Amino acid sequence: MFSPEIVRAFAIGLAVIGAIFLSLGAQFQNDAVTKHHAPIRPRPGSLSLRQIADLLRRPRWLTGTSFLVLAILFQLSALALAPLIVVQPIGAIALIMTSLLNARIYGVRLNPSTFLAIALTTIGVGGFVAVAASSAVAVEMSNGKLLQVVGILFVLLLMFGLLFWRSKGKVGALQYIFGAGVLYGFVASLAKVVIQRIFQQDYDLLTLLALISLIGATVLGGWFVQNAYASGPPDLVIAGLTVIDPAVAVMIGIAILGEAEAASIGQVVSYGVAGIIAITGVLALNKFHPQLKKKDNSEPTD
Question: I need a surface site. Which of 58, 127, 180, 264 has the fewest CB within 10 A?
Answer without folding.
Answer: 264
